[in-house]
Structure formats: C-alpha cells, structure tokens
C-alpha cells in the first residue's frame, strides 16, 4: 500500500473503531469502503487491500462488494457529486430534461467529472423522495422540486465556491470525501440542522391525526396465521 504513514495510522485507528461495532469483522465491510473512499475519493487498489487486511478477507471479496453497490466509485469523483433522479416519477416530472440540459451545461456525462475536479454527475435511481419530484442530490443531500434552470444555477454556484443549502437537512453541503466519512459512521454533528421532513411528506401524518388513525402498539397481539393444512385443503377443493 502506498498510503503515507500518518494517513495509514489514522485509517487503522478509524478501522479499529468501525470493526468494534460488529460481532464479526467482515460485517464492517460497507462502512470500511466508505472510510477508504473518504481518503482516496474513490475505491482504489490500496483501499481494497487495506479493507481485506483489516477484515481478514480476500481482495476479491472486497472487490465483489465494492463493484456491486453504485455508492462506491471506481473513477475520479468531483468535490461535489451531483445526482439527477431519472427513475419513473422524477423522469415524468422532468428529470430526463434536467439531466440532458445539465449534462450539456457541465460538459460531462454519467459518472464523469469536470476537469477542474469540482463537479461529477450521475443518473441516479429512486431516492425515496417521490413526493418532491423531480429530485436531485449533491453528495447525497436533497434538492427538491428541481427544474433545468435551478439545476444549472446550483452547479454554477458550487463551481464558484458559493455555499448552497439543501432543501432538507444540514444548512450547507459538505464535500464528497466528508460525506463518505459520515457514511463510514463518523457523524459531523449536523444531522439536526435545517428543515427535516417537508410538507408533502407530512400530509399522511396530518390525515391520520384528523381521522384518529394510530399504529398498533408494538406488543399488540397479532392474529394467528391460517392453518397451512386448512389452506392446502381449500386449494385442493378448488381443483376438484
């Protein structure tokens, strides 16, 4: 591995803390991959080797996981990684147009970074924020109800070094490496900043309050499942 001694020492301290959270070392692989990504910016051969050594598994096993999940990148990523959701609802609401115009505006395509290293783009799948479609993310922070014009201004502001605030969440966007460290399990203490759930998300809660709907208590008795034998008999009767 080619990590500088001080970098390697910090990685080892962080890895020890991560591994201690799990009953078996290999269970810590996902946050470990975020950890090395927070140092290198993407998954490198050094990062794979480090994870394998720390967890007692093979580099092939590490690589198998790292190449399965799209959150782990294998090429250069911008300081601000911008995702445009083009899944069904976001696409219908304008996500495809946002992607086309933003990609042309920035001059890079899917999983590509600008020459100055400030911005990279990704077509992302559903981010479970359909009530705010079309949605974008910057280093996994949400930007809701976007338009092509708003998307281009957002990226221009990021490239100019201006502070931008997500629609929900912290008051400003951290860098890609900082976000990776948070995902490794080292919080930055900003989880409670800014707006949390938005108005569309809270509509269901308000309806439940108005109509007196409540979830059953956790210890509530649950109905017994149907007798499997009785079910089989019923199916048999159908085929008679």
From TrEMBL:
Pfam families: 2Fe-2S_thioredx (PF01257). Keywords: 2Fe-2S, Iron, Iron-sulfur, Metal-binding. Residues 207-240 are annotated as: Disordered. [2Fe-2S] cluster binds at residues 85, 90, 126, 130. Binds 1 [2Fe-2S] cluster. One of its GO terms (molecular function) is 2 iron, 2 sulfur cluster binding. Residues 231-240 have a biased composition (Polar residues). Gene3D superfamilies: Glutaredoxin, NADH-quinone oxidoreductase subunit E. The keyword Iron-sulfur applies. Signal peptide: none annotated. Its cofactor is [2Fe-2S] cluster. Belongs to the complex I 24 kDa subunit family. PANTHER family: NADH DEHYDROGENASE [UBIQUINONE] FLAVOPROTEIN 2, MITOCHONDRIAL, NADH DEHYDROGENASE UBIQUINONE FLAVOPROTEIN 2, MITOCHONDRIAL. This is NADH dehydrogenase subunit E. The lineage of its organism: Bacteria, Bacillati, Actinomycetota, Actinomycetes, Streptosporangiales.
């Amino acid at each position: 591995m080619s990590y500088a001694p001080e970098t390697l020492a910090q990685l080892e301290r962080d890895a020890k803390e991560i591994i201690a959270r799990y009953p078996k070392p290999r269970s810590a692989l996902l946050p470990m991959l975020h950890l090395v990504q927070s140092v290198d910016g993407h998954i490198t051969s050094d990062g794979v080797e480090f994870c394998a050594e720390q967890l007692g598994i093979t580099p092939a096993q590490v690589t198998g996981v790292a190449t399965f999940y799209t959150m782990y990148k294998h090429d250069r990523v911008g300081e601000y990684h911008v995702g445009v959701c083009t899944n069904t609802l976001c696409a219908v609401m304008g996500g495809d147009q946002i992607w086309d115009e933003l990609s042309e505006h920035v001059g890079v395509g899917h999983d590509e970074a600008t020459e100055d290293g400030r911005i990279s783009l990704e077509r992302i799948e559903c981010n479970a924020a359909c009530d705010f479609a079309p949605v974008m993310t910057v280093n996994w922070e949400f930007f809701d109800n976007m338009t092509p014009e708003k998307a281009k201004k957002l990226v221009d502001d990021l490239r100019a070094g201006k502070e931008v605030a997500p629609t929900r969440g912290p008051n400003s966007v951290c860098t890609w490496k900082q976000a990776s460290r948070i995902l490794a399990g080292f919080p930055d203490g900003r989880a409670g900043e800014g707006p949390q759930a938005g108005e569309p998300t809270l509509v269901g809660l308000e309806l439940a309050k108005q109509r007196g709907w409540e979830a059953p208590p956790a210890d509530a008795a649950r109905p017994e499942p149907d007798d499997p034998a009785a079910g089989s008999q019923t199916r048999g009767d159908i085929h008679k």
